[in-house]
Write a structure and sequence with these properties.
Layout: H1 3-27, E1 28-30, E2 38-40, H2 49-84, H3 100-105, H4 113-119
Antiparallel strand pairs: 1-2
Helix pairs in contact: 1-2
């Protein structure tokens, strides 16, 4: 993969990481002991029964979003590490080159399509 394409992918990954981090910070607190781990804040809307139900519903939604964002951040960091280690674009299973088109469409890809299909 050429340097220009790799730089474009790196910029995309860093942009997505910043976006996810900002969104996580809006409803969760960063766990300082564990990288890319957050703890969703329990909302406090009031003491009415309707408020309590909304708090629980929103907290459950935030927990789900927190977990999916954390997983995405981990995949982004792994991809950035592969770029740093010059192993980006190489399938972690078979060692074959991952097509550039796949990397551009799915920058956190760590497997070629054949290995990805076998893993499903």
């Amino acid at each position: 993969m050429d340097k220009k394409t790799l730089e474009k992918i790196k910029e995309t990954l860093l942009f997505e990481k910043e976006k996810l981090t900002k969104e996580l910070n809006s409803f969760a607190e960063k766990n300082e002991k564990i990288e890319n781990e957050y703890d969703a804040k329990f909302p406090n809307y009031g003491d009415h029964e309707d408020d309590n139900a909304s708090e629980v519903a929103d907290f459950e939604s935030d927990l789900y979003l927190e977990k999916t964002h954390e997983q995405s951040l981990k995949k982004i960091d792994q991809a950035l590490l592969r770029i740093k280690n010059k192993t980006y674009g190489i399938c972690e299973n078979c060692g074959k080159k991952i097509p550039t088109e796949r990397c551009l469409a799915f920058p956190t890809a760590s497997k070629c399509m054949e290995c990805k299909k076998r893993a499903i």
